[in-house]
Amino acid sequence: MLDLKQLKYFIVCAETGSVSEAAKLLYTTQPSVSKAIKALEEEMGIVLFERMPRGIALTAKGREAYRYACRIINDSRILEEMSHGNMAKYLRISLNPSSWFTNQFVEFYKENYDKDYHFEIYTAGVRTVMERVRDYLSDIGFVYVMEQQKKEFQYELAKNKLVFTVMQESTATFYPGKLNTLYQEAADREKAHNVNMEEMKNFRFIQNFRDEFLELGEKEKRSVFSWENLNVSIITNSDYIMEKMLKETGLCNISGSYLSNDKKAANKGIPLEFKKNKVVFGYIRRKNDDTDELMEELLGFLREKLKLENGS
């Protein structure tokens, strides 16, 4: 019979890629972790990890086992809360870094403060958000996807038994930092010209994440946006750092055209000139999973905010 402690050790080993690091996080010894993993492998009759020169890596069977282990640990935590009569509404969210979402979430929480809702929020790139929802580490994932990524994105969704619901579509926009030569032009939209790929090669960028799904052939690259040959100097998951750098340097950013009021105040932005220049915002869920009351409440709140911003 599988032991929950062994599964917890297995999950931490999988996420750290190191038995010694897992032992530190679990406040135990390396031999204890190794023993638990060996016992789990013998119990299941499969090899969960490959031993690498530096650390460990999940085998194909190990990756499959990891998904189920995450679900079992999550369900056991819910059952424990039920047994203690402590079933407060709880929602786990993964998302691409977004100051717009941050502002909406803070407002939602303030409006519902008396309801004692509980949340777990994790920021990451699109692929990681998908994996966390797939592996039952998050209940819902909010992502921004470029229009030209649609084919690759839909393939990944289908492969991982996930579904994506579109909430908003906007134009991919170039945001020059305050010390950038195009900043004043961006401030006066009547004089601003659309920015093309050749022009962007002259600038340095700060981005939340690179375009993870962009794997295009040379023919396709001529007509759509590509990170290739662009100088991404800083990658961060902090919107505070993003906004601070745009206000005080010449770095540029590419993102959707609807942003937080703080970012809009600092930077009006210039539309990008290339085919398929839309950015889609929406949420990822596991296929056939039901939405609970708290999730529906949050989604309804976000939809209303988007309607107000669109003037509808």
Automatic annotation (TrEMBL):
Keywords: DNA-binding, Transcription, Transcription regulation
SUPFAM superfamilies hit by this protein: Winged helix' DNA-binding domain
Superkingdom in the source lineage: Bacteria
InterPro entries, A to Z: LysR_HTH_N (IPR000847), WH-like_DNA-bd_sf (IPR036388), WH_DNA-bd_sf (IPR036390)
Location of the HTH lysR-type domain: 2-59
Family matches, as Pfam families: HTH_1 (PF00126)
Family of the protein in this entry: Belongs to the LysR transcriptional regulatory family.
Protein name from the UniProt record: LysR family transcriptional regulator
Lineage: Bacteria, Bacillati, Bacillota, Clostridia, Lachnospirales
